[in-house]
Design a protein that fits this description.
By secondary structure, the chain is α+β, with helices and mostly antiparallel strands. Helix content is 54%, strand content 15%. The protein has a three-stranded antiparallel β-sheet with strand order 1-2-3, with helices on one face. Keywords: Membrane, Transmembrane, Transmembrane helix.
């Protein structure tokens, strides 16, 4: 799939429907536009703005700094609330699981607990 040279985009923004013809000047890496009034305009096909590529370590440290300064998309208060809810849910589920194990022990004794260990396909 061919891409539109950067110069064409720039010239379309500058002149829009006033462009009669576009020509690529490969030697100078530019696009030349011929306009309705007979004038010409050109724009470079090379982007002069070089955005620095962030390494993963720099990206993570930048995200951590934003979080610590409370500038991230998710606020520190929201994260704290989510941690509290998660810990509370884990405590409730641990209590339920412990209660089920206790009930199993009371009903089936030590053999029932041992049978749980072998249910996963373990060696007898």
């Amino acid at each position: 799939m061919a891409t539109i040279p950067l110069g064409e985009d720039i010239l379309l923004v500058r002149h829009g429907a006033n462009i009669v013809k576009l020509r690529q000047d490969r030697k100078n890496r530019a696009t030349i536009a011929f306009l309705r009034d007979g004038q010409t305009d050109s724009a470079s096909n090379v982007s002069t703005v070089a955005a620095p590529a962030l390494t993963p370590a720099a990206s993570i440290s930048k995200g951590a700094a934003k979080y610590l300064n409370d500038e991230a998309e998710v606020s520190r208060g929201e994260v704290r609330s989510l941690v509290k809810i998660s810990l509370g849910f884990s405590a409730v589920m641990g209590t339920v699981f412990g209660g089920l194990l206790l009930a199993l022990y009371k009903v089936g004794g030590n053999e029932a607990i041992q049978s749980l260990a072998y249910m996963g396909g373990g060696v007898q």
